[in-house]
């Protein structure tokens, strides 16, 4: 079957103007090339070395925001396309939230885990990011807690959170500290 490509931002989150991030595309492919598109614009082509390509955005501007997609080509033929990755650029005006995890950073498979993202302004909404995934989890606002039941090894990874205010002008926080969860 056709290979599948995953696309994600490393580190994840809304980027401040002047900030930087890397767009990663990963594929179980042997050779060929990756082409990165933003909307319908072809931005970069990278020959594959191994199974991943990394495209850097440095000194970000508002023009860097948009929808990115990776295409995988062999001999000029597109064999696979990634999902869409939304990249956002905004001033980060709110204080940085703090991410904690209960019962701890190392848990046994099958355990229940709770992530807590605490931010100073009460009227914020927070996202939980998992590095390597293109979709963030929206945290239920009540406490900014996110529960994972019966975790598996696949839940291991690098987590962070980021918050924004809902009152008219969307104001973003910086990205929180990162936590590395290990499921044994």
UniProtKB/TrEMBL annotation:
InterPro entries: Ig-like_dom, Ig-like_dom_sf, Ig-like_fold, Ig-like_Receptors_ImmuneReg, Ig_sub. Keywords: Disulfide bond, Immunoglobulin domain, Signal. The keyword Lipid metabolism does not apply. SUPFAM superfamilies: Immunoglobulin (SSF48726). The keyword Cytoplasm does not apply. It comes from the Eukaryota. One of its GO terms (biological process) is immune response-regulating signaling pathway. Residues 3-88, 97-176 form the Ig-like domain. This is IGSF1 protein. The gene is Igsf1.
